[in-house]
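testing teh design pipeline on a random one, pls ignore if ur not involved
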């Protein structure tokens, strides 16, 4: 059996509440793609065999973690003539990214 036939016989919809999922009205199903309201957010998935009317509902928790771009770094010479070049450099963000700057002379590379 091909995927299209299966998906037509066994639709899967997502709903905001358990009551809506139990009612199973496709008109109240969440649109796809869906943009969550909060994080975390609980939604309910309903899968149903249309030819028998049998269905099952599961609770899903959506957790959205927003990613932050990594800051750009540059290598800075602290101009200390200590003869040890491995600890006379430090790394600092080149943009105001909100990340803490590593301390000088800490071998942060």
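output:
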């Amino acid at each position: 059996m091909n995927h299209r036939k299966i998906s037509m016989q066994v639709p899967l919809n997502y709903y905001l509440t358990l009551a809506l999922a139990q009612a199973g009205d496709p008109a109240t199903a969440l649109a796809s793609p869906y943009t969550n309201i909060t994080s975390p957010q609980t939604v309910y998935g309903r899968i149903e065999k249309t030819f028998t009317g049998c269905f099952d509902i599961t609770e899903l928790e959506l957790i959205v973690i927003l990613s932050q771009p990594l800051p750009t770094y540059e290598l800075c010479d602290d101009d200390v003539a200590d003869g040890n070049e491995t600890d006379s450099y430090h790394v600092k963000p080149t943009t105001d990214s909100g990340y803490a700057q590593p301390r000088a002379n800490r071998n942060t590379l």
